[in-house]
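Dear H.,

Thanks for agreeing to be a second pair of eyes. The structure we're designing against is below in token form, covering all 406 positions.
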């Protein structure tokens, strides 16, 4: 048992060693970085007065003497907030705001209108319809102006941070996906290439036993037999790993699959094992259609059923019950056995590659079957789970989306 679990640890270490994302550190925007504020007023004295008030905020202030000049600035620069005088010759504040909103780059830039109290009645509703976020009434109260502007400065900084974090996360995801694909392709080709020399080993050691067995003494024969069985086991492991890798990489096309038909195939594939073990299999209520890939579903159920037939105490005849029930949008298929059961602390890890709870002498296997089951469920948009206690048998379940009614 420990041997295989040690293997698992090795695989994990390898996996975590290839943290591709490490190459890109996540650096949120510097909160001290200055943002831009645009002041628009035709009167230089008013521009200067407002500038003096907000200078304390320590940000970049850009001044424009007309709506046109403001629009030119907006073409080149990103602003946290625009302070816009309503009464200006030429383009007035509202006309300028309408043009600002038409541009993609500034369609959401907050605008605070500066207007005289006497004009508020008529201005307020028009301003809000143009997407104004606030009004500052003249005469301007410095504290009020500073507080209002600082809220938008903070908001802008937070938005910039979120945007830059998002970009970096996106880069990480792309890099991780690429690394994952490369790693999977690498595993696949390694596993594939390993099989050729292994087959030669297996073939020659078998030939050695057949052709020269008589010349070997008992120990010699024992050694040759061990080479055969080790090579065979390694071949099983590689084959199972290849099927796991294939299941992870290959496109699978989903469609409606009748559970009953899938289970017929499963029972045919397990026929020999059922007969050898003199197992009793009861199949109930399977009149459901799931959204799946038939071949993948059959393979996954073969894995579960053969485990139910395999993991029984010595001398016990396997008795397995298979049934399905439906919920809102999903169908759950359960396979209940009278086997040796599994302690709850192992319920999660048995679904990982190479996790086994017994030695191969006790129960043969590679420890990849349930990892394949879990991967298959994931690829088909479903879930798997187990309910079990030692000596109480196990119930493995698979939940899959129900096929839509046409
Ligand atoms: P393998 O069958 O090759 O050992 P699996 O990935 O299918 O690998 O299963 C992992 C481990 O989970 C098994 O080694 C066994 O310890 C446990 N297990 C799986 N199915 C059952 C079951 N029906 N009853 C008891 N134990 C089980």
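And this is the sequence the design step returned. I haven't edited it by hand at all.
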């Amino acid at each position: 048992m420990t041997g295989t679990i040690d293997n698992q640890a090795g695989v994990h270490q390898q996996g975590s060693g290839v943290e591709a994302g490490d190459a890109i550190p996540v650096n949120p925007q510097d909160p001290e970085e200055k943002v831009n504020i645009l002041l628009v007023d035709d009167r230089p004295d008013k521009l200067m007065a407002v500038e003096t008030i907000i200078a304390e905020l320590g940000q970049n202030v850009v001044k424009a003497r007309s709506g046109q000049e403001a629009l030119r600035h907006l073409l080149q620069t990103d602003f946290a907030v625009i302070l816009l005088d309503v009464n200006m010759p030429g383009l007035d504040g509202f006309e300028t705001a309408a043009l600002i909103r038409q541009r993609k780059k500034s369609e959401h830039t907050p605008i605070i209108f500066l207007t005289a109290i006497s004009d508020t009645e008529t201005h307020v509703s028009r301003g809000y319809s143009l997407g104004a976020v606030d009004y500052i009434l003249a005469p301007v109260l410095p504290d009020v102006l500073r507080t209002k502007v600082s809220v938008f400065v903070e908001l802008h900084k937070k938005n910039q941070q979120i945007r830059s974090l998002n970009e970096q996360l996106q880069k990480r995801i792309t890099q991780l996906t690429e690394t994952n694909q490369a790693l999977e392709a690498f595993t696949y080709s390694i596993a594939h290439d390993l099989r050729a020399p292994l087959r030669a080993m297996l073939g020659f050691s078998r030939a050695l036993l057949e052709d020269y067995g008589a010349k070997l003494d008992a120990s010699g024969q024992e050694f040759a037999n061990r080479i055969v069985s080790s090579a065979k086991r390694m071949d099983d492991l590689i084959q199972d790993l290849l099927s796991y890798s294939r299941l992870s990489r290959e496109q699978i096309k989903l469609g409606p699959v009748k559970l009953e038909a899938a289970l017929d195939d499963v029972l045919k594939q397990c026929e020999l094992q059922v007969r050898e073990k003199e197992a009793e299999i009861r199949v109930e209520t399977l009149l459901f259609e799931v959204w799946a890939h038939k071949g993948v579903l059959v393979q996954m159920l073969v894995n579960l059923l053969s485990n139910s037939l395999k993991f029984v105490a010595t001398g016990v005849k396997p008795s397995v019950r298979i049934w399905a029930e439906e919920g809102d949008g999903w169908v759950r298929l359960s396979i209940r056995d009278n086997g040796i059961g599994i302690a709850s602390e192992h319920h999660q890890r048995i679904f990982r590659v190479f996790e086994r709870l017994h030695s191969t002498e006790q129960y043969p296997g590679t420890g990849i079957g349930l990892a394949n089951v879990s991967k298959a469920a994931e690829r088909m948009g479903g879930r798997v789970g187990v309910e079990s206690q030692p000596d109480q048998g196990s119930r493995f379940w698979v939940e899959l989306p129900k096929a839509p009614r046409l």
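Two observations from my side: The chain has three domains: 11-140, 175-249, 255-401. The pocket of adenosine-5'-diphosphate is lined by residues 303, 307-308, 311, 337, 339-342, 350, 355-358, 365-371, 394 (CB under 6 Å).

Warmly,
E.
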